[in-house]
Known about the structure:
homodimer, alpha+beta, 2 domains, seven-stranded mixed beta sheet, three-stranded antiparallel beta sheet
Amino acid sequence: MAGLAEIVEAGLLIPTGTRGVYGRSAAFEDVRRGVARLVSTLAEPDRPERMSFPPVLARRQLESIGYLKSFPHLAGTIFSFEGGEPEAAEQESRAGRHEEWSEFQRMTDLVLVPAACYPVYPAVAARGQLSTGGVAIDAGSAYVFRREPDDDPMRMQMFHQRELVRIGEPETVVAWRNEWRDRGIALLHSLGLDVEYGVASDPFFGRGGRMLAAEQRERELKFEIAVRLPGRAPTAIASFNYHEDHFSSAFDIRTASGDTAHSACLGFGEERIVLSLLQAHGIEIERWPAAVRHRLWEETP
Amino acid sequence: MAGLAEIVEAGLLIPTGTRGVYGRSAAFEDVRRGVARLVSTLAEPDRPERMSFPPVLARRQLESIGYLKSFPHLAGTIFSFEGGEPEAAEQESRAGRHEEWSEFQRMTDLVLVPAACYPVYPAVAARGQLSTGGVAIDAGSAYVFRREPDDDPMRMQMFHQRELVRIGEPETVVAWRNEWRDRGIALLHSLGLDVEYGVASDPFFGRGGRMLAAEQRERELKFEIAVRLPGRAPTAIASFNYHEDHFSSAFDIRTASGDTAHSACLGFGEERIVLSLLQAHGIEIERWPAAVRHRLWEETP
């Protein structure tokens, strides 16, 4: 059983001088891509449309969906320089001495993407009313940002979500989410991970957030698959989220019958899955169980 | 010959409500990945070490390499919320009305990565002195940010660089860059693109920047390959940069003989290459010349 310190020491993750931000070695990436490919194979019956988005989002969209009510502490906003040559010179002079230079930076119209599904909703909305049965979207493997600086590599500030989205009639969306919960458990078991499944809640901010979390649990809007590893509490490596009409109302997405659509998304935390595999099977990837290696690389979809 | 508006209309790029930020369709991504794979094949003789970094960087590193002297106008800095529940409530209230809420955001220790090679230098420096011959690093396909909002899809704010880096003795580094210039021209020709090669300069900021640009040209530190497409000036789609000791001095990277190393990097602009192919060969990718399709997808490395 490999420890996280050992994984970093082996060069599988490359420290970058700031907490929760790592480079990835070729071996780490090969495992991560293997996991992503397995999710693609699982998604085939849905015949999803693939869309890929960069890790930045229009700020207005974050404002419109109420992210700053639920997760103000996790959001990253993008600022840039405004000024002329004297201000640029002063900014550079202070930056060169590693002193404060934030006063020269102004908020832009961009923020970092906090969940890989967020750009999907306005893109689907822009096409007009859905057809019967709605849409399945594969948002690929995308970098997302959460402002949670931490020394534990299982909690990164920037990591890949392997994300899928379903938008349509409520019963279609709920059935899809439940199907994927089972697919997800089977996938992670097949990789030799000891996982458990349960109702979960998001890390909502503040006192009001505790109420939101309790309500989310009571209504079973979020399921998570957590991995059991020695020396740590079960840690979520996949989540399955039913949004009801949260996103569809914000962007006015309607079903074929004209009702506001419902949506659900699911995300596999790719780096957490790779780290779990390294902890479960050891840092010598070439010595992992043959069945796991076969699943990751040798099965042709 | 397809126009850029036609490419967006065909859904190959997906508008996101903010200039220079697009989603990519499955077809767009398949071409982009084909281009990236061709660069990997070209890189095989270098036997590069693969490293992948997320699109955020320690702010201190941007300060240390003088980026804010040369390109203050292009940098993106990351801010996040600091405050308690009252401040969060006021921030959310203003954001919900799409009013100003920047005062609740504070500069973090992170910035957006402006060039895919930047995280490589401190990672190599951390390993200590180089061996004879130095190192070749493949930084993969990485998203980078430039604060240049523009309606022209050929100028995105967030795009993929396919980047390689060489660090070592000056003559090794210069020979590598020259070799890649020829490889790059051959690659882009083989995709049916009409390209030209020349000495170039970076878009340095301000009056001082004009002097830096003139010096860069005079010393032939930057080469670019530009594509010739109807209706637009030649547009750079790859660049080949000799940094001399710029990065190695900042991070104290030394050769086997103890001298400060030199470095060079090269980057292919993946989205610009895909857009160039769509403009040159048409938006119906299945009707592209067989030789181009073969190069992109059917050759096994």
